[in-house]
Amino acid sequence: MTSGQECQDVQGSGDDISSIEAKVESYGTREDDSAQEGKSGDDSSENNSESSSESESDTEETDIRKSDEELEKNELLPLVESEANSQFRCEHVKTEHNQKEQVTPRRLSRGQFWLKLEAEGTYQCTVTGLIFDVTKAAVIKYSVLSWSKYADYVKKPWMVGGPIFDVSCDSASVLTSIQFPHSLSLNDHESGMTFKVLHIKSTGPAIEPSVDHSMTHVKWHVSSLSPVGPVIQTQEPVHYDGAVILYKVVNNHPSLSFRVYVATNNDSFIKDISKAVKYSDKKFIKIDKPPVCQKRLQDGKRYRLISEPEAEITPEEIEFVDGSLLKLKSYIEVYMEQPMEFTLSLIELESEEIVWKAKLREYLKLKVPKHQEKTAVILVARTEAGNIGKCDWILHDQNKNEQKRNTISNRRRKSSNSLFGEEFYNKRLKGSDISDGTKAKTTLTDQQLMTLAKKMGKDWKEIAIECLKLEMKDIHQIQAKEEEVNVYKFMMLSKWREGELSNGTAQNLYDSLKDHVSYEIIQILEGFLEQT
Q1: What is the DSSP string of 225-248?
Q2: Which of 97, 156, 180, 433 has the most CB within a 10 Å radius?
């Protein structure tokens, strides 16, 4: 472990990061950089907004300094669980006993988490694995960032050790230390390993010392608050806690096509994968299988994915590397011409040991005349007893002539099919494939717009301009009369509906707002979609 070493700025570091000649890219509008660092919070995440082509990521890293009272009153959402089920650990890693209180955060908009800690103590986030040491009550906000944005600042011999986070606190001096989860499988391979953190400050990136590390975390004394993540340096082979993540292509073809990602168990890496799938030209559904590798992955070793029965797999073999710093994430494509139950296994070539294994099942939903539906459902339930609940997706037996009608009827019956992953996925994409558009074209009512208006926060003007394509003159016109703020928000939405004419629908508004508003608003819009 490392301790007592002085902070090494990148420009003056002997850790080979001195090769970075360019300064940190612009982080958007900055406050005065001459302000002192320390635990004043001057390096807070609001100073790290980047004006780059990755605007969808930027929205998750900004707006992190809102009034805490506003958050408690307006933006708090139900408790959430990690989408990536963060911090899975291989079976061979022993859990260490620490006196810390487990706390579950609330999710805000734009991928942020919010914790209110009531007193002095050590607290661990159940979603991200972060551990906070505070000297008194505090409110902490944080989000997972992408390492690819900071790839220029991680040069050999340094390597990514775990996810990178943007953390802020209402009183920075109260937050004394943070323990970052790492994705390394240490065991006997840590003797020559150096642990530090990369700290992205307003003056530039810096390599700072850690004060301790464990089998699962790297501890850092807070110097100032801005993006920070663990990095390592070693001459020995690096072993990782691994994860295998599956996505199935959603289409109307009977064949099966999958993407298989082999990754380090790193929230930043997993978030990048999720984003890559989200913005792909194809539609995907995530297959819920245990992602944890039963044997640790080693950097530079070769692995093979095999299928029983046989499938087309491209590439057949891979050399494992931690792709956290890469913008494009590698994956393995699996294709089967005929749908069937099959098993995927990831094999380490050198030892021929199974690293990960999963069985994939489907459920064939037969198309039957409407008057026979009830009988057919009972028949299928009896013949497939014990298997229906185990399926990973549904194969719809439908012909091209009736495809449009079945798409709508399936949506109406989706509550009865909610056990299946693909139906849940289609709920999020509801209306996107409606071709006759009879009900999807129903415009939002005044009552629906007012419901949405009451849930919007202080950023309604930004949403109006950025998402709904209104102009500043429209905002001035709306605010010309003295009205209650919710009326302003309603008038803004009404102005958008008026400009959209017959396309002022719940689906259109959902598509415009889904990446920019709170989860609560998304839920309301999904409720409107269910009514169509």
Answers
A1: -S-EEEEEE-SSPPEE-EEEEEEE
A2: 180
Question: CB under 8 Å to 343, separation ≥6 — which residues?
Answer: 307, 308, 357, 358, 359, 360
> CB neighbours of 508 closer than 8 A, spacing ≥ 6?
500
User: How buried is 450 (Cβ within 10 angstroms: 0-12 exposed, 13-18 middle, 19+ buried)?
Assistant: middle
| Contacts made by residues 520-525, CB under 8 angstroms, sequence distance 24+ | 520/77, 520/455, 521/452, 521/455, 521/456, 524/451, 524/452, 524/455, 525/452
Instruction: Name the CA dihedral angle for 275, 280, 285, 288, rounded to a multiple of 10 degrees.
Output: -40
Q: What pLDDT does residue 481 have?
A: 80
Model confidence pTM above 0.70: no
Q: How far apart are CA 530 and CA 329, in angstroms?
A: 35
Q: Where are the alpha helices (DSSP H) in 12-145?
A: 55-58, 68-70
The pLDDT tens digits of the residues spanning 147-194 come to: 999 999 999 899 999 999 999 999 889 999 999 999 998 875 456 789
- 400 by Cβ neighbours in 10 Å (0-12 / 13-18 / 19+) ranks as exposed
Q: Decide: helix, strand or coil at residue 505.
A: strand
Residues 135, 94 contacting (CB under 8 angstroms):
no
Alpha helix (H) ranges present in 166-286? Answer: 267-278
